[in-house]
Amino acid sequence: AQTVTQSQPEMSVQEAETVTLSCTYDTSESDYYLFWYKQPPSRQMILVIRQEAYKQQNATENRFSVNFQKAAKSFSLKISDSQLGDAAMYFCAYTLGDSNSGYALNFGKGTSLLVTP
Amino acid sequence: GAGVSQSPRYKVAKRGQDVALRCDPISGHVSLFWYQQALGQGPEFLTYFQNEAQLDKSGLPSDRFFAERPEGSVSTLKIQRTQQEDSAVYLCASSKPGLAAYNEQFFGPGTRLTVL
Predict the structure, then answer these.
(1) Type and span of the H or E element at B11
(2) What's the whole-number mean pLDDT along residues B75-100?
(3) Chain B contact for A90, CB < 8 A?
């Protein structure tokens, strides 16, 4: 079975500090896409950042960046200069299936991030 | 707003009742997905539509679950004879035209179903 593992159920960070959320995955595919989604308490899931597996360069989006280690099947998310609004559940995911499944997402169980003033 | 909307936001059903959950995707989005998110878990894929065609229903947990998207826009997820294990948040997502795996999925706020 193809799985996504987020080993940190909860993480805490102080405002303005940096935090890294870990994610490992298991797939037999060579080409796939990886995502981090954020789910605030209101429950609307929002895309944070995405990475194409065939690209070696790590993706960055403002304060968010990833450390993608393809051989290790690791895809961690780094949040720099943390803000109170970053508090949420963070889900790691990768595309599952093929064009017939519309590239549905396979999610991990999530990491709850708490940001303290 | 132009986001994905879902209704109702909350639904309480007695065991054995039928329920219908509605999803309004972003206008023009070809792809539509349904996910089930149990408490404390990540979303799990249920089914996928490309326009009105249901191309993948491999994630539907039983034949009590049925989804449709007859005109290629609004979708309804129906659960017959609800059971307590059906209690979860049901998320709908849509994405832009095309089948690129890189496409961002836009999620609705979800419907929280509680079966008593």
Answers:
(1) strand B10-13
(2) 91
(3) no
